[in-house]
User: What shape does this take?
Amino acid sequence: MSNMQFSNDLFLYMYMYMPSTILVLGAIVVLFSNTFASKFSRNTSLSLSMIFIASSFLFCLSLGHISNVSSITLMSEYIILISSFFFIFLTFSKQKFVEFQTPEFYPLYLFSVAGFMLMVNSSNFIVVLLGLEIGSLPLAAFMAFNRRIYGVEASIKYFVSSALASIFFILGIMFVYCYVSSFNLRDSMIYYKLGLNILKNAHVLNVMLLIFGVVFIVAGIGFKISLVPWHSWMPDVYEGSNPVIAGYISVVPKIAGFAVFASIFGAIFNGNSALNDKGYIEQLLKILLFITILLPNIMALLQKDVKRMLAFSSISHSGFALACIYLGSFETLALYWILFFITNLGAFALLWMNKPKNSRSRYDYSFEKFYGFSNKHPIISLVMALFMVSLAGIPPFSIFWGKIFIITNALQRDEIALAIIMILSSAIAVCYYLKIIVAMYFKKPLIDNEEYYEDNSTSSIRGIVLICALLCIGSIFVVSYVLDYIPLFNYIS
Assistant: This one.
């Protein structure tokens, strides 16, 4: 009987963790192919990386995998793998840059994707921590590969913030383990022990253990998904990274963090929750939501660089995504993050097409460099304007539909204050997204734009931009398709 149980567990873990295993094996293959090759080939490493990411995605479509993971895990895996595939595809650019001519980049990229896949697959705190480390540490190396002083600065800041995130998460795990004596997310059932009706009758030591555990876990995940006040690293990291890495950071680590957050705390806010009183965790998350949605938009108004502006914008979008968990709808989170991924991929691909010539400048994409940009690049300016109004949530483009669903959910649950904050925040966002449109169309260039940028586009990158632009315009069809095929998410499944 024990042998049969062992065999069943073995097959279960094989189906669960095989996508991450494929990526790790791919990283080893790419590493050895570069070690024994007479000359490094970017195209070979890129092709192998894409093949293994695609193979991992295909395994995620298998019936054996689908039947052994939760809906939250499955949808997160799809977003992570598709995002990783397209962002690494952008490295196939016209110009050759040092970070993508470094043989170590491609295996580290696969290790990073494998780490975040491990995070969303696991139901054990220790394995989640392991995935967090495996996914985060390669990102610090990516930023330093460009050998710019600002890249090294961003690398150090990201490494320190990742270390702090791990420390907070470890402390949270420790306190929760002292309370429930288990590292298993399902066994610990944190969400069933948070109601004030339970805590008020508990021993004060148990109450303190649980409170500290929850606060530290929220802080650890907050670093990864850039919640305020743990967001300060993100603008500097965007600034010091090239658009490919910045775009990857804006999507992949965050959806992994959201999935873990939903797995741990989601049932508190699920409509089927057994708790009548959600207690202090509800108030804590509501405060985080308000400041994360509103404050970064105010800060974005003050930025002089497009990438820093997009960084603060991304923090605000994280607040909207977290609101989906608070409102008990992972379906809406998946829809919102898919729409955000499409728009962000297009925007960063467009920035990557026009690489700055002067790499010594701190602000590669300052607003001044876009003055009069439409005069010589009318099509690029038009597409950039499309992505900006899409990110701003102007109808009928992509993010608008995601925000409408979230605000509607808030109103249905009588969260009037949250709905007002989201509407006010969206109005502020329109102001700073329009800044780049005004710069391109209504400002006179200080000097010829050709002095600032060089063409870095290839037919493949232009194809990605075109696809993203069409999906933004026809986003209502994307919404319809996603809602038809996303299963009914259940936090306890």
Summary: The CA atoms of residues 35 and 103 lie 9 Å apart.
